[in-house]
Amino acid sequence: MDSDTLWKHVDEQRIDLAALIESLSDEHLATPSLCAGWTVRDVAVHLTQSHADARQVFPEAIRYGFRFNTMIREMAIRDRTTPPEAAEKLRAMVGSRRHPFGTNERAPLIDSLLHGQDITVPLGIDRPMPVDAAAAAAQEIWDMTFPFFARRHNRGLRFVATDVDFAVGSGRVVEAPIRELLMCFGGRVPASSLHPSDGSDSGSRAG
């Protein structure tokens, strides 16, 4: 996926997520998200923090002993941004091509797609993903190590999307829509919850 298309998807996700956040009740916002220890409100606020620069990140990293998952969670919980303010911040980020320090431009795409599910799945809201964007995000997660380690956690499996041209890994074939594969690679659902194919390793490309 080229850079312009990627950022177009990020902008669309941010606009849609802003509207979603504004629509949620206090009860919805207090609901536990798919991220352990995070409420829906915490995830909403975290989505606005991708513009933090090194001057903000380094002191927090030192404070939490470079335990980045803990740092990110605590930054979201401590942030006093209200949900309406979070929605406005997301809209203000449209058009920006900044991404979190130490990451590449695919990080905001991964964040918007996965965290959108972290918010909506516990609330019983179906939030479709653009399949090309989901495939790009899934490939990025598969290729990286920290923090997901998707390749390590899914050794011996070959994942094939049923709704877009995407296949990675080798071994027993697991076929599912790309949204489910992305959720698996992002640690939201185990591979065992997906449906294995009856066939052997297919001829699709490997990642």
Summary keywords:
Maleyloyr_isom; alpha+beta; four-stranded mixed beta sheet; 207 residues
Query: In angstroms, what is the radius of gyration?
Result: 17 Å
> How is the main sheet built?
4 strands, mixed
What percentage of the residues does DSSP assign to strands (E)? 5-15%
The helix fraction, in percent, is 40-55%
Distance between the termini: 15 Å
Sequence of strands across the biggest β-sheet: 2-1-3-4
What is the number of beta strands?
Answer: 4
- Please, what is the average pLDDT? 87
**Count of helical regions:** 10
Order of SSEs: HHHHHHHHHEEEHE
Tell me, what's the shape?
Answer: globular
- Low-pLDDT stretches are 198-207
Q: Strand pairing plus helix content: what structural class? A: alpha+beta
Structural features, described:
This protein has about 210 residues and is of the alpha+beta class. It contains 10 helices and 4 strands, in the order H-H-H-H-H-H-H-H-H-E-E-E-H-E. Strands 2-1-3-4 form a 4-stranded mixed beta sheet. The model is unreliable at about 200-205 (pLDDT under 50). It has helices at about 5-25, 25-30, 40-45, 55-65, 70-80, 85-90, 105-120, 130-145, 150-155, 180-185, and strands spanning about 155-160, 165-170, 170-175, 195. The protein is globular, with a radius of gyration of 17 Å. Strand 1 and strand 2 (about 165-170) form a beta hairpin. It comes from Gordonia westfalica. InterPro entries: DinB/YfiT-like, Maleyloyr_isom, MDMPI_metal-binding. Pfam families: MDMPI_N.
